Amino acid sequence: MKLSVVVPAYNEEHELGACLDHLLAQTLPIDEIIVVDNCSTDRTGDIAREYARQHPRVRALTEERRGVAWARDQGFDNATGDIIGRVDADARARRDWSSVVMRFFTDEANAEWDVIGGFPLMTDAPGWRKQEAKLEKLAADRGGRKTNGVIGQCFAMRRSCWEAIRESLLSGRHDIHEDHDMSAAVRQSGRRLWLSYGLIVEGSSRRFRVPPWRNVGYALGGSRAAWARRDWKVFAQQAFVVLPFAFVYLFVLWVRLRGWDPETERWSARRLWEGRREAVRVSPVLD
Q1: Which of the residues 33, 55, 149, 276 could staple to 183 if both were Cys, CB 3.0 to 4.6 A apart?
Q2: Helix axes 44-54, 16-24, angle to 10 degrees
Q3: Tell me: the pLDDT tens digits for 177-204?
Q4: How far apart are CA 196 and CA 186, in angstroms?
Q5: Which DSSP state fits 13?
Q6: Among residues 273, 263, 145, 236, which one has the least CA distance to residue 198?
Q7: Torsion angle (degrees, nearest 10) of CA 236, 239, 241, 246
Q8: Which sign does the torsion angle of CA 142, 144, 146, 151 carry?
Q9: Beta-carbon-side half-sphere exposure of residue 163 (alpha carbons within 13 Å)
Q10: Can you tell me the distance from the alpha carbon of 76 to that of 96, in angstroms, rounded to the nearest whole number?
C-alpha cells in the first residue's frame, strides 16, 4: 500500500522547507510528496522545485486558480498512492505521522473507515504542552473516535474515497471551509471518518494573531459550508452552538496570543499595547 502526501502552498517561502524536511524524515518513508504552488508571489515555487530536484520522492506542481481547495484537488488528482494525505505548508508532521496513518489503513479491523484525521498543535501558543500531554494520554487510553469532520491540515483518506467524492466538492466556493465541505461529502457518500489522538502536526497560531474582526469570514466558513451542502444537522450545530461562541473565542484567543512571548513562554499585559507588527500571513480566502 502506497502513501502520497499533498502540501498546498501559498507564499510559504519561510515555512515550506521545514515542512518538507519533516515529511522526508518520517520513520516510515512517505512514497510520494506533492507540493502544489498556488499562485505564490514569493519563492515558494522555486523552493518546491529545488526539493523535487534533490529528492526523487518530491514532486512540484502548480495550480493557477487561487484557493486551497483548488490546490488540494490538483494534488490529490495527481497523487499515485492508495492512501492520500494532506498537511499544510506551515505544519511539521511528527516523525511517526506516516506510521500512524499506514498502521490505521493496513489494519483489517479498520476496513470500514475511509478517512483518518488528527490534531494540530500550535507550538507558539500558550498551553500547548498541556494539550500535547492530554492528546498523548487520550491516544494511549482510547486511540481515537468517530467524527463528523477532520481538519484540512492533518488528514489522510483512501484513494477510493477521494474518487467517490471528487465531483461533488464545492471547490469553487471561497467563502466556505474546504475541509468542512470535504468531510460532509465523505459522510453524504456513506463513508466514515475517524479521529486519531495520535496523529499530530505542529503548526503556528498565525491565523489567530490577527484582530478578531479580520477573522469574521473564517468564523462563518463552517456554517456556510454546511448550508451549501444541505448538511442540516451540522448547520444547526455550527449556527446555533459553535458560531455564537466563535467570536468570543477568537477575541479571547487573540488576547492570549497578543500577550504571549513564544521565546520566553510567558504572557505579559504590556505586550498587548506594544506597537509591533505581527508576522502574520493570512490565507487569500475566507477573509
Answers
A1: 149
A2: 20
A3: 999 999 999 999 999 999 999 999 999 9
A4: 17
A5: T
A6: 145
A7: 150
A8: positive
A9: 9
A10: 22
pTM beyond 0.90, yes or no: yes
Give the three cell numbers for residue 161.
474515497
pLDDT at 282: 47
CA distance 121 to 164: 30
Handedness of CA 97, 22, 84, 148 (dihedral sign): positive
Tell me 73's DSSP state. H
Within 88-173, strands assigned E span 92-93, 115-122, 144-147, 154-158
Among residues 37, 50, 46, the alpha carbon closest in space to that of 10 is found at 37
Write the DSSP assignment of 155-204 as a string of letters. Answer: EEEEHHHHHHHGGG--TT-TTS-HHHHHHHHHHHTT--EEEEEEEEEEE-
Cell numbers representing residue 102 in the block: 499506514
Nearest 5°: CA angle at 40, between 37 and 41? 155
* Cα 131 from chain centre: 17
Nearest to 186 by CA among 166, 205, 172, 201: 166
The rounded radius of gyration (Å) of the Cα atoms in the chain is 18
User: Contact, 114 vs 193, CB < 8 A?
Assistant: yes
Which phi and psi angles does 141 have, rounded to 5°? -85, -40
Place of cell 487569500: 284
- Contact present, 107 and 30 (Cβ < 8 Å): no
pLDDT in tens, 134-189: 999 999 999 999 999 999 999 999 999 999 999 999 999 999 999 999 999 999 99
DSSP letter at 277?
Answer: P
Q: Which amino acid is at 153?
A: Q
